[in-house]
C-alpha cells in the first residue's frame, strides 16, 4: 500500500517536473526573444526560472530513484559478491535516507519561518515558502522511496530475497 502511494506520488511529482521543464523552456524563449527582438526582456524571468527549477530538481528525484536512474560509479563494487554489493547498497541507502530526511525536515522548518516572516520574491512579490514546501515534499518522498531500496538490499544481503518473475 505504501509502495503504491509512493509510486503514485513519485509519478505525479515527475509529471510536475516535466511540466516545469517545459515552462522553463517557454520562459527562456520568451525572455531571449523579448530581449533581442523587442529590446524588452521578460519581466522577472530569472525569478520565474528559479521557482521552476525547484519543481524540476526536486520533483524528479523520487521517480529517478524508483527507475534506478541516478548516476552510479560501481567499478569497484562490481568486484564484490552479490551479498557484499547488497550490504554496501543498504549502507548507502541508510545514509541517503538520513541525508534526504534532514533536507526535508530543515526545508519544512525554513518554510515555516519564512511564511511567518511574510517573505516574498523581489519582482513578482510571490510568497516563497511554497517553494520550500516543494523541496520538503520532494526530499521526503525520495527518503520514503529509499526505504524500499534499503529493504530490498537488506533482503538480498541476508539471502532472503528472490527476484520477481520476469513479465
What this model shows, in words?
The chain is mainly alpha-helical and 167 residues long. The protein has one domain. Helix content is 74%, strand content 0%. The protein is built from 5 helices and no strands.
Distance between the termini: 21 Å
Please state the average pLDDT score: 92
- The figure for the number of domains is 1
Strand content: under 5%
Provide a count of the helices.
Answer: 5
Largest sheet: none
Order of helices and strands: HHHHH
Helix content range: over 70%
Label the overall shape: elongated
Question: Which oligomeric state applies?
Answer: single chain
Number of strands: 0
> Which structural category do the helix and sheet elements fall into?
mainly alpha
What is the C-alpha radius of gyration, as a whole number of Å? 20 Å
Q: Could you list the spans in which at least 5 consecutive residues all have pLDDT below 50?
A: none
Outline:
By secondary structure, this protein is mainly alpha-helical. The protein has helices at residues 2-37, 45-59, 61-66, 82-117, 129-158. The longest helix is centred in the N-terminal third of the chain and has 36 residues, at 2-37.
Amino acid at each position: 500500500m505504501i509502495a503504491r502511494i509512493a509510486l503514485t506520488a513519485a509519478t505525479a511529482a515527475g509529471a510536475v517536473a516535466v511540466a516545469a521543464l517545459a515552462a522553463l523552456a517557454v520562459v527562456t524563449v520568451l525572455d531571449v526573444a523579448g530581449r533581442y527582438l523587442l529590446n524588452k526582456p521578460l519581466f522577472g524571468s530569472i525569478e520565474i526560472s528559479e521557482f521552476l527549477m525547484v519543481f524540476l530538481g526536486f520533483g524528479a528525484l523520487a521517480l529517478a530513484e524508483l527507475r534506478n536512474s541516478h548516476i552510479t560509479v560501481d567499478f569497484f563494487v562490481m568486484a564484490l559478491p552479490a551479498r557484499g554489493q547488497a550490504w554496501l547498497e543498504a549502507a548507502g541507502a541508510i545514509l541517503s535516507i538520513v541525508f534526504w530526511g534532514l533536507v526535508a525536515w530543515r526545508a519544512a522548518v525554513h518554510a515555516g519561518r519564512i511564511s511567518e516572516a511574510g517573505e516574498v520574491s523581489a519582482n513578482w512579490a510571490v510568497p516563497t515558502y511554497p517553494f520550500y514546501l516543494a523541496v520538503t515534499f520532494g526530499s521526503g518522498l525520495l527518503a520514503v522511496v529509499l526505504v524500499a531500496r534499503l529493504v530490498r538490499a537488506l533482503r538480498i544481503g541476508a539471502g532472503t530475497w528472490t527476484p520477481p518473475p520476469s513479465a
